[in-house]
């Protein structure tokens, strides 16, 4: 066999042998969130630790950022707004935001709104947390999210929220009546 053909044959056989070797074993080092709580993970993504209530029982975070959070059951927590967390909340965790959110609602007056995205001011530490509820964005102080809030009894939360709504309505009516009275006096 001529030397160039012999060399080519050796190269082909060597390449085939290398391709037949089993792949290297995957690294046995744990993912960065192994044994960490969700409130410890969130600051690594520039988010405050108290975005989720204290009743988190488990969570999973995939390499692509998909986040699934399991709570001990439905949860009502008070931030600036009464917030409802379904037993399972999902979304995509990115640095400075949680998008594609499902399972979180906030109550404003008598209406519940789905929270679809949470984002913060960057760079950390954030001064504000922004809740996107459809086409509306609410800006809240980040201090409200410094630690996980406890879940509250749903009946108590709904009653206190309803009473606060009625009180706000009466305050608005009182101001409106005051304006009407002033207009009629002049």
UniProtKB/TrEMBL annotation:
Signal sequence bounds: 1-19
Keyword terms: Signal
A Pfam family that the UniProt record links to this protein: DUF538
SUPFAM superfamilies: At5g01610-like
Keyword Signal: yes
Source species, domain of life: Eukaryota
InterPro entries in alphabetical order: At5g01610-like, DUF538
Name of the protein in question: Uncharacterized protein
Organism of derivation: Oryza nivara (Indian wild rice)
